[in-house]
Design brief:
mainly alpha; 5 helices; single chain
């Protein structure tokens, strides 16, 4: 809609005209969800911020207190360190998350307390080696059985 409203024409008339022209061109027929009913929110109580919550869910965005976000990040880092193929990378992952955990330990968090201490890097690497050895042994047993 690049045209300007002519003087003397009401906004309602001008808007109706623009909509009719767009319908004639078929601009509304190619929209996502065309011809489908709007999602029903009848079961849920009214929420004035529904559109913000829907956008956050659609974009995978969540807001957690810093301590809870770090706890989740630490769990993910431990899993990543245990499954990474490189011991160097595993050490790097654990040392990076330990730096963040120590920083959180020494400043008061705005949310709930962290309740964690840094991981023992050598213990994590030992567990990683044991897991890798166990996987190699189970693969060897499967190959001998076939």
């Amino acid at each position: 809609m690049t045209e300007r409203k002519p003087p003397g024409v009401s906004f309602e008339t001008w808007t109706d005209h623009q909509i009719r022209e767009a319908e004639a061109r078929g601009d509304f027929s190619r929209l996502a969800g065309a011809g489908k009913p709007l999602p029903s929110e009848v079961e849920a109580p009214y929420d004035a911020l529904w559109w913000i919550r829907r956008k956050m869910a659609r974009e995978g965005f969540s807001v957690l207190p810093p301590a809870l976000a770090l706890r989740k990040e630490a769990e993910d880092a431990l899993t990543a360190a245990l499954t990474t193929p490189s011991e160097f990378r595993a050490r790097q992952i654990i040392e990076d998350i330990n730096t963040k955990i120590r920083a959180m330990m020494f400043r008061p968090p705005p949310g709930p307390p962290l309740g964690m201490k840094p991981y023992d890097v050598e213990d994590v690497l030992r567990r990683r080696r044991e897991r890798a050895e166990g996987a190699e042994q189970s693969e060897g047993a499967e190959e001998q059985g076939s």
